[in-house]
């Protein structure tokens, strides 16, 4: 009797081990990918503290790193000394902060408005049309923008000409670009954001609105006292995530939509485009590029944690973790 | 009967009471409807330019009402199109292979995380989640992919960097949690079904909507990718469609150069290319597959996005 039990136990143990091994084999492909393409590059961060040079005798990644000289915080000092880098940090932060607020307000407003449309087919059609830009790449969008701003044939250029004005040289004049980028970003992202909020709104039970309506609440009061409180967790969650990304910019928007045009750099250079340009430019500076990325990642990580702590204090339920 | 009709009538009148007033309604339709139309107008505009005669463009520029129409862009594409079809083929190949591999990896990874009896569940959850908060940055990733993994001028260079997305893993795991009854796995295990058989013969068939969501998100990412090729692809043979379009921003004659036509004929072709309408025709050809398909699969994408944004 005891023997049988013992046999069963060891059998169980083996079965458990086998199960664990099989489950590990399921995560293995993904885990290996994460190691090679996400964790290994984290080791490469050492380059941020080096004067990275290609080791001419036997150039390989490892040799280059081993034989490059460490220069401590030199890259970072250089990064914060130049006015260009301060400009790109300012650009990244300003665009992001403005767009977080703008997108939140407009998307919530649109979601509430769509929810008030009683003809379901019409509401569905609007949603489908508004979702279209989400499916396009920034390269495609850059051609859409070009159709309006092309220096010789663009619609706006020719409109200005026909009105007798001197046409703006759109890809050389930085002044209008903060607005162009804002409009383009809103145009591409609004449908997606409002659909996210709309999904939460449609989940609110109708009885809550009925009760409020019977109590004599106007439509506006219903929005304030029923809809917005229900949206609060979603708004806070998306807010934490966007604060964590406040130093990250959408590369495609800032790189292809202005057609990588040099005169526009003062208003289109953001950390992400700098990281790319520093890496790919002839005689590019790998150390500087990595230093800028590290700054971006480290500060972003701290901001994410900070925003999460603050939200946790306000509303335990809505924090990310 | 009559009472039912009355109740419905009563309900309806009450619901009507809770509707917004007419002027507000009109305002909503102007704002939301107006923006909806604005969302597709640029695309319609690009289609019009693609069919505009070059003479009209040089006279009045791009216009919603051109002076003259033409099919030049299409006839030139037929002549110069070799690179276009190569890129179309590349894009389809990359999208199909990439989607299959990434979905397979995502389903297996998230299924293991879904299993409560998996010993290292917490570890592997953190292992993927942490990469969404912190990373090595572009330069180290680029150097490792290019120098160490040999991702340069081959299909793997475009497929591999997008294989795993921690966001999709979270979506898929949440999907398993909400739609797969856990007893099913226990029952299968009692019946002696192996782990892989349970996953692929029992779990996968009942998780089709979730898998469709992940597959569509991945397919869209692969189809629209141009940044990864910008990093790792230099030769024309591996250029996918979006990257071809990107290259034509700077080199309008990229198609002519890679058409396979040589000698004086090529120079002549390049000179007479209807450059403006041809580029816009390319944009149309890139967008058309998406524009036709997305209305049918958008509900899957929406369900994925809303699942992903809900905290566990």
Give descriptors for this structure.
heterodimer; A: 321 residues; mainly alpha; MetI-like fold; 2 domains; two-stranded antiparallel sheet; 14 helices; 1% strand; flat; B: 312 residues; 17 helices; 0% strand
Structure description:
Chain A is mainly alpha-helical and 321 residues long. Chain A has two domains: 2-70, no CATH class; 74-318, MetI-like (MetI-like fold). Chain A is built from 14 helices and two strands; from the N terminus they run αβαβαααααααααααα. Chain A has helices at residues 2-43, 61-67, 74-81, 83-116, 120-131, 138-149, 155-162, 177-202, 206-214, 219-244, 251-255, 265-268, 271-280, 286-314; strands at 50-51, 69-70. In chain A, α5 (120-131) packs across α8 (177-202). The mean pLDDT of chain A is 90. Chain B starts with a helix and ends with a helix. Chain B has helices at 2-17, 22-50, 54-60, 72-80, 82-114, 121-133, 138-148, 155-159, 166-179, 182-190, 195-206, 208-224, 227-232, 241-250, 254-257, 263-272, 275-309. The relative contact order of chain B is 0.12. Chain B contains 17 helices and no strands. The interface between A and B is large, with 98 and 97 residues.
């Amino acid at each position: 009797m005891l023997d049988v039990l013992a046999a069963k136990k060891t059998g169980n143990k083996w079965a458990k081990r086998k199960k664990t091994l099989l489950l590990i084999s399921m995560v293995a492909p993904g885990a290996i990918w994460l190691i090679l393409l996400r964790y290994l590059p984290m080791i490469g961060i050492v380059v941020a503290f080096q004067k990275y040079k290609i080791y001419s005798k036997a150039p390989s990644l490892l040799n280059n790193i081993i034989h490059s000289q460490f220069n401590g915080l030199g890259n970072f000092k250089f990064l914060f000394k130049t006015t260009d880098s301060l400009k790109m940090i300012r650009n990244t932060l300003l665009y992001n902060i403005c767009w977080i607020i703008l997108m939140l307000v407009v998307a919530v407003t649109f979601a509430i408005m769509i929810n008030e449309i009683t003809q379901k087919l019409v509401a569905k059609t609007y949603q489908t049309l508004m979702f279209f830009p989400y499916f396009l790449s920034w390269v495609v969008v850059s051609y859409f923008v070009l159709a309006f701003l092309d220096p010789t044939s663009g619609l706006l250029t020719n409109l200005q000409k026909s009105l007798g004005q001197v046409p703006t040289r759109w890809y050389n004049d930085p002044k209008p670009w903060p607005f162009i980028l804002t409009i383009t970003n809103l145009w591409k992202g609004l449908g997606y954001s409002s659909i996210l909020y709309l999904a939460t709104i449609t989940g609110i039970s109708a009885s809550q609105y009925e009760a409020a309506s019977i109590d004599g609440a106007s439509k506006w009061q219903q929005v304030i006292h029923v809809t917005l409180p229900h949206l609060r967790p979603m708004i806070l969650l998306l807010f934490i995530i966007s604060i964590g990304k406040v130093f990250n910019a959408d590369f495609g928007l800032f790189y292809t939509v202005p057609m990588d045009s040099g005169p526009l750099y003062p208003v289109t250079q953001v950390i992400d485009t700098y990281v790319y340009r520093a890496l790919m430019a002839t005689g590019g500076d790998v150390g500087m590029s990595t230093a800028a990325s590290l700054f971006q990642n480290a500060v972003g990580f701290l901001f994410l944690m900070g925003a999460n702590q603050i939200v946790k204090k306000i509303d335990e339920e809505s924090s990310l973790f | 009967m009559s009472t039912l009709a009355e109740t419905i009538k009563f309900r309806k009148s009450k619901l009507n009471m809770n509707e917004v007033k007419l002027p507000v309604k009109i305002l909503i339709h102007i704002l939301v409807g107006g923006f909806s139309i604005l969302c597709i107008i640029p695309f319609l505009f690009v289609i019009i330019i693609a069919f505009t005669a070059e003479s009209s463009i040089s006279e009045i520029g791009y216009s919603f009402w051109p002076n003259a129409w033409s099919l030049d862009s299409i006839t030139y594409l037929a002549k110069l199109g070799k690179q276009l079809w190569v890129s179309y083929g590349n894009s389809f190949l990359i999208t199909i292979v990439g989607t299959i591999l990434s979905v397979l990896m995502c389903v297996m990874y998230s299924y293991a995380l879904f299993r409560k009896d998996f010993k290292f569940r917490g570890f592997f959850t953190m292992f993927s989640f942490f990469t969404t908060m912190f990373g090595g940055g572009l330069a180290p990733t680029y150097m490792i992919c290019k120098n160490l993994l040999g991702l340069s001028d081959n299909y793997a260079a475009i497929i591999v960097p997008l294989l795993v997305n921690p966001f999709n893993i979270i979506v898929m795991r949440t999907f398993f949690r909400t739609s797969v009854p856990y007893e099913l796995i226990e029952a299968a295990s009692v019946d002696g079904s192996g782990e892989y058989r349970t996953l692929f013969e029992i779990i996968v068939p009942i998780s089709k909507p979730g898998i469709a969501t992940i597959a569509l998100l991945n397919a869209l990412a692969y189809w629209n990718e141009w940044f990864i090729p910008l990093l790792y692809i230099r030769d024309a043979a591996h250029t996918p469609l979006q990257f071809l379009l990107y290259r034509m921003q700077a080199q309008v004659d990229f198609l002519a150069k890679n058409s396979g036509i040589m000698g004086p004929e090529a120079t002549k072709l390049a000179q007479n290319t209807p450059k403006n309408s041809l580029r816009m025709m390319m944009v149309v050809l890139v967008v058309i597959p998406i524009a036709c398909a997305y209305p049918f699969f958008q509900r899957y994408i929406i369900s994925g996005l809303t699942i992903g944004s809900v905290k566990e």
